[in-house]
Amino acid sequence: MAEEEMSTGMMGAESLVRTLVAGGVDTCFANPGTSEMHFVSALDRVPEMRCVLCLFEGVATGAADGYARMTGRPAATLLHLGPGLANGLSNLHNAKRAQSAVVNVIGDHATGHRQLDAPLTSDIEGAARPFSDWVRTSPNADAVATDGAAAIAAARSLNGRVASLILPADTAWTPLSPARSADTRDGVAPVPAITPPAKADPDRIAAAVEVLRRDEATVIFLTGEAVRDPLIDVAGRIAAATGADLMTPTQCPVISRGAGRPEVTRLPYPIAQAVEALSGYRNVLLLGAKAPVSFFAYPGRPGELVPPGVNVQKICGPEDDIADTLTALCNALGANEVEPARAPLDVPAQPSGEITPESLGPAIAAAIPDNAIVIDESLTSGRSFMGPTSTARPHDWVLGTGGSIGYALPNAIGAAIACPDRKVICLESDGSGMYMPQALWTMAREKLPILIVIFANRKYQILRAEMTNVGAQIGPSAASLLDIDQPTIDWTGLARSLSVEAEQVTDLDALNRALAHGVALDAPYLVEVVL
Amino acid sequence: MAEEEMSTGMMGAESLVRTLVAGGVDTCFANPGTSEMHFVSALDRVPEMRCVLCLFEGVATGAADGYARMTGRPAATLLHLGPGLANGLSNLHNAKRAQSAVVNVIGDHATGHRQLDAPLTSDIEGAARPFSDWVRTSPNADAVATDGAAAIAAARSLNGRVASLILPADTAWTPLSPARSADTRDGVAPVPAITPPAKADPDRIAAAVEVLRRDEATVIFLTGEAVRDPLIDVAGRIAAATGADLMTPTQCPVISRGAGRPEVTRLPYPIAQAVEALSGYRNVLLLGAKAPVSFFAYPGRPGELVPPGVNVQKICGPEDDIADTLTALCNALGANEVEPARAPLDVPAQPSGEITPESLGPAIAAAIPDNAIVIDESLTSGRSFMGPTSTARPHDWVLGTGGSIGYALPNAIGAAIACPDRKVICLESDGSGMYMPQALWTMAREKLPILIVIFANRKYQILRAEMTNVGAQIGPSAASLLDIDQPTIDWTGLARSLSVEAEQVTDLDALNRALAHGVALDAPYLVEVVL
């Protein structure tokens, strides 16, 4: 009777919130509307759920991506009908490409209301599907717990996926019925078995060992856990034992780098440099990564970046068990006792004088504190950052994965909430930063220790290069669409308007001081670097 | 030979731009990326196309919506692959609900590149479909002109629709072949026949006349052209001749109002007020509008707002010829010579003293100049605006149509570019304004004479009411998700950071002065009204 009484009156929304918390999803990035009000109301009865308000949905989905990259666990998002979901889709695209586990909760009209075609009605499942790995609409309040648990399992399957659960308003506001299934008696459904990634394939391991034992130039192209603590050490042992190089895709979700870490090269973005980086290898072994392709197609340039005739061989794919495969490979090579070649601690001296493209990398490298999370959307400004930072204090480097710009500021929120004891440094270009400036408000609200560095070149610099790459001419009209200096964006004013402290710097000494101040501050701080 | 030579070397992208211009689409709201560079490059060879740069795609689509509402003609948008489209979808939802004609041009990877699944690859057609009436991917350069012309026709069909044309990069950069069809010899395809809206249905007209001649309380529920200059006058004649009332849906794209215009009531948003407004009628005649339904479903409240037993009768639907139907109805009633009851010119006196909810309407009404375009996303703050403005100087009043917030600032851009001689006043709530603040930058860049009034109540006030409506409790956690005052947004600082002049006002005298200053200024101006 006590159990019966406890659950009397519990509505679907509370049942979902309790199921999420019980399933390990205790953080929700939210921009709610009317159809989500019962979910919001339930938060007062389930204090274990931390709900972070975002002023735009792309901030919420980008934050969930950043959270998943740091924890390996899904956060929830709370989005309002089709248009609210739509505003979050571009960062879900990035999350999906990062294999980040995300549980989207998307409110919909009450089941009976859909047929009336009220103004906000749209095909939510249709909108979600291109950017989700799993989509389901909950049919009634009793099913919500089970569907929520299924969404968690879907998100945690196969190394991480995007799950979108659509919650019609009546399923949220209807009390659970006594007739509901026994395993959801207290409103909480257990998370079903996840689909695990496939374990190491012995044949592929053996074939890789055979290649690695040849006296041939070989690169292991790897991503995911294989380039992060602690497994990057295993990758380093394999490299040291075999002489193979380690390389990540350009769009690698997270790389553990800096002093003490084995060196892993990142494939450069510019196609000529990428082709150059891959030339000279006889073998490319794929470990969790797909064979590298150019980001865009260019007339007369290759799409597949590995030259013809090179042996490309898969050890495991993105949805396979990367940890198990890497460990099995190391075992098969007998490399467990081999010491990796580790980067020394060699923090560059702070540069001085005028800001140049080459001086930015050392300035950043000098500023990175121990165990920082660096979120990099600096694009053209950041192309020289990897070298100087490779011997900086140990840190994680987070990269854009899906090419949808505007991911970095939201991602930084998720990283900071996931790792409250770590400094987050967000390297942002001005063009990309203007996609989701609303993120600054949530950073201020939550007092997140994020240092934002805006590289203000005041143009879509990357597009100028791309126009040349695709063979298009830049006349005055075209040029006017590539520059964003008319008018100039005052990033410090923008930040302050959202309660984020900020300063602008125009030389390296001021930059060094600003970075040090921002690193020390236990709050968000924005530095606009005028280039 | 000359013709042959002229077209030699013309690429698909230029062919598309020329076709758009020839088809009357001479304005493009753009946020381009690599795959759109040839389109951008072609702008220098086709100066008739005006291209307006937006820093976020939702600004581009919202501007296209505003442009179409004012001109009845489509503008183009230029968007970058799936995620770029995704960022524009929420305002396309509004455009679709407004029956705005829009031609989206969405770049995609080159045809052969898609199979490589590069990071930016996504299902663009799938993403476009829920928010478009027409979707097509162009297969090759020769087809681009024909497909572009078809997109224009689709957008202009049935009173206005959203057409999405996907342009793989190679179709843009490939020269037209000599083998292309004869009707695209100069790279320009003629616009095919549009699907016209159905003309007046004589049976429905006769049935409506029969109802209107009864001595019964009747309301004509109408939208589209029927409530805009010049046809609103015809609606006024019908009302005067028959005693019927005129009412628009809550989400009406544009209403011509103020001095000299026949009175048309707007159905209130709050469900109790809406039910009240419709009570007492024996007949509801639908002219271009669908039968009114509640915006959201609420437990125990009606979804259909017309009380049971009332005669609801369709004269024509949203995709029928509203102008022809209205004119035919007026003819059938012999009402062409009847003088409508026109609103007098009765500009309220400027209110003075403290700002109250009731004083805002008169202050706005006093400030509206002749022939202004008022774009209203003031939501809760604006619920008292319709009364005082009904006798203001003549103006057009633009409303949210799809319920996706953040439409007003982008819409104002489109309206200002469509109507360079008219003042645009954008009434914006703070919560909604934060969805697309990037619009301010484009306003400054294009020096658009837009007066933005931000009603800063520093909360999602509408949601507080909605929580009560749906029967959800507001505890401290829930309340924290409904307030946006921690931290406070400094709208004047935000505007200035994007080069828009701004001031904050806290009393009515300052508000009056600020509104007058903004109306007189030939540039954007933002007034933050602290409530």
Question: Can you summarize this structure?
Answer:
The first copy, chain A, is α/β, with parallel strands linked by helices and about 525 residues long. Chain A has 3 domains: about 1-185, Rossmann fold; about 200-330, Rossmann fold; about 355-530, Thiamin diphosphate (ThDP)-binding fold, Pyr/PP domains (Rossmann fold), CATH 3.40.50.970.
Structure description:
2 copies of one chain form a homodimer. By secondary structure, chain A is an alpha/beta fold. Chain A folds into 3 domains: 2-184, Thiamin diphosphate (ThDP)-binding fold, Pyr/PP domains (Rossmann fold), CATH 3.40.50.970; 202-332, TPP-binding domain (Rossmann fold, 3-Layer(aba) Sandwich); 357-530, Rossmann fold. In chain A, 37% of the residues lie in helices and 18% in strands. Chain A has helices spanning 2-7, 12-22, 37-42, 57-71, 81-97, 124-128, 141-156, 169-173, 202-212, 231-242, 271-278, 322-332, 357-367, 386-389, 408-418, 430-433, 439-445, 461-469, 476-480, 491-497, 508-520, and strands at 27-30, 50-53, 75-80, 102-108, 134-137, 162-168, 218-222, 245-248, 254-257, 265-266, 283-287, 311-316, 372-377, 395-399, 424-429, 450-456, 501-505, 525-530. Chain A has a 7-stranded mixed sheet with strand order 9-14-13-15-16-18-17, with helices on both faces. A 6-stranded parallel sheet of chain A has the order 2-1-3-4-6-5, with helices on both faces. In chain A, helix 10 (231-242) packs parallel to helix 12. The longest helix of chain A is centred in the first third of the chain and has 17 residues, at 81-97. The termini of chain A are far apart. Mean pLDDT of chain A is 95; it is low at 1-7. Chains A and B meet through helix 3, helix 5, helix 6, helix 8 and helix 17 of A and helix 3, helix 5, helix 6, helix 8 and helix 17 of B.
